[in-house]
From TrEMBL:
InterPro entries: Epimerase_deHydtase, NAD(P)-bd_dom_sf, NAD(P)_dehydrat-like. The keyword Transferase does not apply. Residues 6-248 form the NAD-dependent epimerase/dehydratase domain. Belongs to the NAD(P)-dependent epimerase/dehydratase family. Dihydroflavonol-4-reductase subfamily. It holds the Pfam family Epimerase. Keywords: Oxidoreductase. Coiled coil: none annotated. This is NAD(P)-binding protein. Gene3D superfamilies: NAD(P)-binding Rossmann-like Domain. One of its GO terms (molecular function) is oxidoreductase activity, acting on the CH-OH group of donors, NAD or NADP as acceptor.
Amino acid sequence: MASERILVTGATGFLGSHVVVKALESGYSVRGTVRSPSKAQEVLTSWSSYGNRFDTAVVPDLVNGDYSEALKGISAVIHVASPFVRSVDDPKKDLLDPARQGTVKVLEACLKHGVRRVIVTGSIAAVLDPTKGGLWRDYTYTAEDWNPLTYEQAVSGALPGMAVYAVSKKIAEEAAFEFGREHPEMRITVMSPTMIYGPLVLPADLSALNTSSQDIYNLINGKLEKTASPAYADVRDVATLHVKALKVDSVIGKRVLVNGGTYTFYEAVNILREKRPNLAHRLPSLDVVEEVRDAPAKVDVSIAETELGIKWMSFEQCLLDTIDEFITMETAQKI
């Protein structure tokens, strides 16, 4: 398998970097797309121990990028790259176009260059119904569920940033499946994770963390906000599922819902108080993170469990590994 090289888009991102490592550990050779030559040098340095099993391709722009060099000698693609921001100035330019057109661009390039197997990173945001409470309802979400918000609503500027993000993931996913129907030789799977948490694999600055990592860091830096979502997936599990899916034909044409379980920041603070008592003075008081008593919705993860054989990382393990890394980073960055 060492000779089989796959392409991972967004290789320097939080999830993308984990996918790269998981693929390398699984015996693949990997090419990662990066936005600039300087980013290429950073990751080549970080993953130098893999030698020529890891290389990079510079694709500066999701929508207008040229993938012809990136796809040379590639047997499959894991398309992770997609913007994730909570505040949006221009919905169309910031989120909607990069997500949808970026996905279509990759699929068109794959078709042209003879690459047939593609795993696309979706999001549970494309599945949930925010008009009925999202994850706060007595309901079990399955792969048949779709977020009812529309492109027209998102582009109008009337929706908050997270709702625009949800629509961006929905229309990108719809475009992927539509492409698959038009070109049945393409073998497309979409992974739809809940909020992704976990440790980082590439060096990062604590002042410029990705969105979900910032949420966890806020538990110990005095900036905690309310729990955004009661469901999580450990980034290592999400990466594992992306890589495993490459070799499992039964998930072709499917959405794979990915959810490790439920959590609250109240639970997180209690775990840290017990397991990391040295951080007690940095934690918010429990009344700030008042316990949520409503039961969250369920997510049907049967495809991930039965067809891809995942064993979920516990929230406690996910939380502790992440916080421990932040403490190490603080020491290195002298915060």
